[in-house]
Amino acid sequence: MRRASLAAALAALLLLAPAAAAQTAEAPAITAEEVLRRWLDRSQEVAALRAQVREARFDVVTAALWPNPSLQVNFLGTPAGTPPDGRANYGAQLTQPLTVFGQVRARREAAVAALSQSEVSVATSLWSTASELQTLMVARAFADARVTVAARNLAEVARLEGIVERRVAAGASSPYDALRVRIGASTLRAALNDAAVQRDRAESRLAALIADPTVTAVPITRESLSAFRGPEDPRALLELALRRRPDLELARRGVAVAQASERRWSSESRWAPSVSLGAYATQDPGSLSVTAGLSFPLPVFDRNQGNVGRARAEAQGQGALAAALEVRVAREVTGAWEARAHARAALEDFRAQTATAAEELLRRAEVTYQAGGNGAAAFTIQDLFDAYRSTWDVRVEELTLQQTFAEAEADLERAAALVVP
After folding, report:
1. 198 near 143, Cβ under 8 Å?
2. Mean pLDDT over residues 282-308, rounded?
3. Looking at the domain that runs over 2-76+86-298+319-415, which CATH code has it been given?
């Protein structure tokens, strides 16, 4: 009865294990490049960011235009007394400000600088989101790999169960051995369920971040993750990062925007004459006069001192920020490079030490357990299960090291802005 109960329990566990693992196989794996492309092409959030650039382009159009002329119409009548000119007087005057001292050019240069900054601001947002997508893809891929490993381990429990059943039937092992296998299978099943939950969480966050209503599944696997995109030279990688990091470029362009604003406000404080042309007609007696004039503003009090000073201070602040970001980028790239190198060395060392040892350990343990033995030399179910556990631990640890390496590589790609769309 106990053997029948054990067999039924293991059968239920092993039937559920493929169901959890099959969630990955239901849809074909998608590559990381396809995920990023779908996000860029279909996400409404990306569309909203790109709209900011289009908005800034219209500011350039507006800045290049001259101010509109103004038309003044007046009437003067004399209800009593002697009129100075005529009893009814009609006048019209057209006035046009003349921005001929560089005001239009300065405004357009400021708008172009702001457009350039807007483009990099959008690129910074895309870089940040793309980095988050890459992190989630790594998490989803390795959670999926843990589901596969846990399912493989559960499948091996079936083999162990067969060995134990034969030993118990022959009277060479006690029912304790069967109980030990059942407990171990429950632990493995818990690991499988946990990995499936982690995979589903990462996939749901991926789908939410892509923000495409048609995307319901993102079946990314270890095999479909992107290979490292950068050069295998830390100095070349740092040079690339200093050119590509959008947050650094945003600070640099902030300096250009502030300097352009300073020039604009300085030009706005210059004299901008207005020319006027008009006509003046009278009745009783009738006459027609033509008027023309030229007026100049007098920048006596307000010469845009506050705006100019603010722009200068902003340029200094953005310059200091750019200098600080250069140091930060260098530290981030150097640290991520070293972390990636250490993670790769740890993975290679682990594989070299355990490539064949774990499988050989398991094979010898099974042979020894089935051969039996008495007294102090007896090979118990505990010894056999320890061999299985060691093999499973090796697989999990190798997967953990692989994920650590993938995460370190993703950090390096983010630091060097290799994920910028």
Report:
1. yes
2. 87
3. 1.20.1600.10
